[in-house]
Structure formats: C-alpha cells, structure tokens
Design brief:
The chain is of the alpha/beta class. It is about 50% helix and about 15% strand. It has 4 domains: about 140 residues, Rossmann fold; about 130 residues, Hect, E3 ligase catalytic domain fold, CATH 3.90.1750; about 140 residues, no CATH class; about 70 residues. Strand 5 and strand 6 form a beta hairpin. The chain starts with 10 loop residues before the first strand and ends in a 24-residue tail after the last helix.
Length: about 550
C-alpha cells in the first residue's frame, strides 16, 4: 500500500505600498493591506514566505527599492516564491504598459501576480480585463496628479511653501491653519543667508586678493575655509552654480520648473513664481548672471581665458562680428590680429582688416590710458551708477535707523514690564504676560539682527567714491596697465575694456559700467583691479565719437 504524497503549499510574497509618506506615517493603509493579504493566503492554504513594504512610493514607475528586490527574487532560478499577492493591481503599477511588462516577465519564470480585490484567471478574457483595469488606474493616477499639481501651483501663487526642502539660506515656518492643513512659508535663515551673501560677493568682487571668482574658484575657497553646506558637507560645482543662478535669492522662487521624470525644463507658462524674502539685491544678481554668461565655455574657449595674448577673446571684426584671431608671418617673427572669417574664406567671406598685434595692443592700451583713465571722464561715465549707489545707501541707512528705533522701543517696553513685575504690579504667572514678553523679545532681537545685516550690506558695497578716489584710481590704473618690461598687463586691461571692434577706419573699445565700477571699488579698497574674464556687454561707451 503506497503512502499519499503531501502537496507542497504555494509560496506567496506579499507586496504592500502606499503613495505618500503621510499615508505611511499614519500607519493605516499598510496594516490593513497586510491583514487582508494574510487572510487571503490562509483561506487558500498558501504560505506567506516574504513580504515587501514600500512606504511613500509612487507606482507610476519601477524606481522602488523594495519592488526591485522583490522582482529580483522572483526572476532568479528557481524563484523564491510562486505568487505575488497585492491588494489591487494599482498597488503593483499605475502604468498599463509597465504592468503588462512585469506580468509577462514574472510568468516566464513561473510566478503569477494575484490581486485580492480583483481576482482573475489566466484566460484571454481575464488578461483583457486586467489590461482595462490598468488603463483606468493609469488614467486616475494622471488625473489625481493633475489636480494635485493645480492645487500646489495655486498654493505657491499665494506665497505658501509646498513641502519640499527649503533652499540654503531659508527655513520653513508655520504660517497658520487653513482647514485641516497647516500652511508653510519661507523665512530667511540668518546663519545660512550669510553663506549665500558670501558666495555672491566672491562671484562679484573676489576674496580681496583677486577679482570676481568663477564657480570652481568659489568652491575651492569655501571648502578651503571650512565653509560647509547646510548638511555640513563640502561644496560641489553643481550645488554652487544652482545657488548663483537661483532667482529665489532676489525674492522670486520658481515652482514647477522641471518634469519630475525627465528633468526637462517646463514651458514658462507652466512655471509659477512665489514671493519670498530676498537675500540678494536684484542688481547684484543680474551682475553675477552676466559674469557667469561671460565665462561660459559655450561662449569663450578655455584658451581664451588662460592665453597670454592681450586681446584674445575680446577682439572682433566689425564687418562680420566674428573673432579676430592671431596669425604669424616670417616664420613667427611677426604677429597679426586677423578676421577669422577672412582667414578661412578669403575676402569673399569678409573684407575685414589684418592689424599687427603690437600696433593694435598699443593703440587700445594708449587710448584707455589717455581717454578713459581721467577722473572727469570716469565721473561722466559712472555718474548714473554712482547716483543710484548713493540713493541705495541712503535708503539702507534710513532702514537701519528704523530697525534700531524699533529694537530700542521694544527693549524699553520690556524694561517697563520687568519693573512692573518687580514692583508687584504685574503677575508673571499670567500667560498673556508671558506671551507679550516673548513677542517683544522676538521683535527686539530680530530688529537688531536685520539692522546688523543691513549695515553689513553697506560695508560690503565698499567706500564712497570721492573725486580724490577717482583721481587716485586713474593714476594707479595707468601704472598697472604697464608691466616691468614695458608691455601691458592683460588682466588690468580687461578689467576696463571687454570688447574691441576693428573696422576699416576705426577701432571701437566697449566696456561694462558695472565692471568698471567694481574694479574702481576694489582698487579703492586696496584690492587688485583684475577681474578675470569680464562680461562682453557694451555699456560704458556713452557717445560713439568720444571713444573712437
């Protein structure tokens, strides 16, 4: 008589998922899924051999750690289990194509996907029904995402933060209750905001031993001086470039800028601007953007930045607008600036001129020395910029006085409250009194902090440029233009002129007012006038005939 062989029970893996961290933290959905899955397996005599829990993960893609671990266990040979049990197919995937892809991949290794609430067979009709269900799940997911994004965009328009991590320099604070939700806003973090201000200062003015610094130089400076990121880590090029280009720091935070899947930038019509407290002045921000653009490898080749030739990278043909490059003759005995179009295509491409290098270098440097570096000419060019600078300083001084006054008034009120408590007039156990003391203390402390920051901004702006300072700068700059061997100092010349256009009968020298002012302020503070690779935006040539 033979003994009956007992069948091996079906091994089941249980997969649980919730879409948001809030659902996971509430501890409601996953325990309920687990209870139903265990009862489902028990009723069928299946053995639950593994479970995979995915808290706060979307099912629109497969970038889920526990999901991938489960798929790896299911597709090894032999598989670690026979079926995967989910509450519904939407827990597994909310994308019809991806769902079918993984169902077929599992089936090739003998593993089935089973839904507790949507039981289906393996026949063609069941497969079609599953695909239809998946299409509805995908549609519902996209509709939910659309409505959620619309609500978040409106939230941002009203000035409320949507829950992601705040940019460095800011912190998230409660802004009050709206229904069952607590609204959040951004406020300036006094400590981290100083790091942001320092980064922009280094980009514009340098560290006192050089002119404006590029992204890599700023990263090296911050890391060398132990100025860390918000998390205490070292700075990288990407993180620093993001700080320098983020409009959040001038009070205009942009929300919904990129597609979360592809990281592609969305159209401007989809982007929402949220008002936040500014850390950086808008004029300073735009100046830094111009400097970053001027250093872009797409505009300036590395050889132009580091090359020894005086006018390389800033000398252009007025006829075609293309760069004039260096050519040599007589076995290298003579050097010339030649229109690059003419050099490649001949006079059919451009009739631009070829000018001896020494002649053009001397002409440009001599003109800057004789015409630009005169106190009265500097005053004429910079009059508008200087006036705006003085007005801004006056407004900041008035703001500082108002903040100091507010702090003094709050401090005086606190002293009167303390005297009332000492004299027994006020009861310290009164909760309203405690609230008032805390309120006045916060007003006093914050006003002092804001006043100190505003005063530091005035100090960072540099000394007031008097006629004597202009005369001193002009005299020193003329000296610095020449090196010990009788040639010209490349960095000092480029701090004063950012573009040279060579025409048939004339040479036009163009420059940027802000670059000139920055060089002047640096020189007045005893710093180097060199600023690396300045912007090519032509600004300071006030009248064409005055600079020819």
């Amino acid at each position: 008589m033979s003994t009956p062989v007992r069948a091996t029970p079906i091994r089941a893996a249980l997969y649980f998922r919730v879409s948001t961290g809030r659902q996971a933290d509430s501890d409601l959905s996953i325990p309920d899924q687990r209870r139903q899955a265990e009862n489902f397996c028990k009723a069928r005599g299946w053995e639950a051999v593994a479970d995979f829990v995915e808290p706060g993960q979307s099912a629109t893609d497969d970038r889920r750690p526990e999901f991938q671990r489960m798929i790896e266990a299911a597709t090894t040979k032999p598989p670690a289990f026979d079926v995967i049990v989910v509450h519904s197919y939407s827990r597994f995937f909310r994308d019809q194509f991806q769902l079918e892809f993984y169902v077929r991949r599992l089936a090739k290794n003998g593993v089935r996907l089973v839904s507790i609430t949507q039981e289906l067979g393996d026949d063609p009709m069941s497969n079609m029904i599953r695909q239809i269900m998946a299409l509805f799940d995908e549609y519902q997911s996209r509709e939910n995402a659309k409505h959620t994004l619309r609500a978040m965009k409106e939230n941002a328009r009203q000035g409320y933060w949507n829950g992601s991590r705040a940019p460095i320099g800011y912190r998230i604070v409660d802004a009050g209750q709206r229904g069952q939700k607590t609204k959040k806003t951004l406020e300036i973090d006094p400590i981290q905001a100083e790091t942001v201000r320092l980064i922009f200062k280094l980009a514009r003015e340098g560290d006192g031993t050089s002119g404006g610094m590029g992204v890599k130089s700023i990263v090296n400076h911050l890391n060398a001086n132990n100025i860390r990121t918000r998390d205490g880590g070292r700075w990288g090029l990407g993180a620093l470039h993001k700080v320098l280009t983020r409009t959040t720091y001038i009070g205009r935070h942009q929300f919904n800028t990129h597609h979360w899947k592809t990281s592609e930038r969305k159209p401007e019509t989809e982007i929402v601007e949220m008002a936040v407290p500014p850390i950086i002045d808008a004029a300073q921000f735009e100046e830094v953007q111009a400097l970053l653009k001027s250093r872009s490898p797409a505009l300036i080749a590395p050889r132009v930045v580091s090359g020894p030739t005086l006018l390389t990278g800033i000398c252009f043909c007025a006829g075609c607008g293309m760069a004039m490059t260096l050519r040599t003759g007589k076995s290298g005995r003579y050097s010339y600036y030649t229109c690059s179009t003419k050099a490649r295509q001949g006079e059919t491409g451009c009739k631009g001129r070829t000018v001896p290098m020494e002649k053009l270098d001397a002409l440009v440097a001599d003109h800057i020395e004789r015409r630009l570096l005169k106190p009265e000419r500097l005053q004429e060019i910079l009059s508008t910029v200087l006036n705006r600078r003085e007005e801004r300083a006056e407004r900041r001084s008035e703001h500082i006085a108002e903040l100091r006054k507010r702090a003094a008034e709050a401090d005086a009120k606190l002293m009167r409250l303390y005297e009332a408590i000492e004299n027994g007039i006020a009861d310290l156990s009164d909760p309203r009194l405690k609230e008032r003391v805390a309120e006045l203390t916060a007003i006093r402390d914050q006003s002092r902090i804001d006043a100190d920051h505003a005063a530091a901004e005035i100090e960072r702006a540099g000394p007031i440029l008097t006629p004597q300072a202009l005369a001193t700068f002009a005299r020193q700059a003329r000296k610095r233009m020449r090196d010990a061997k009788g040639g010209y100092r490349r960095d000092h010349l480029r701090a004063l002129a950012q573009r040279v256009e060579v025409d048939e009968q004339e040479v036009r020298i163009l420059g940027h007012k802000s670059a000139l002012l920055r060089t002047l302020v640096a020189a007045s503070g005893g710093k180097s006038a060199g600023i690396g690779v300045p912007s090519f935006v032509p600004k300071w040539r006030a009248r064409e005939d005055s600079n020819l």
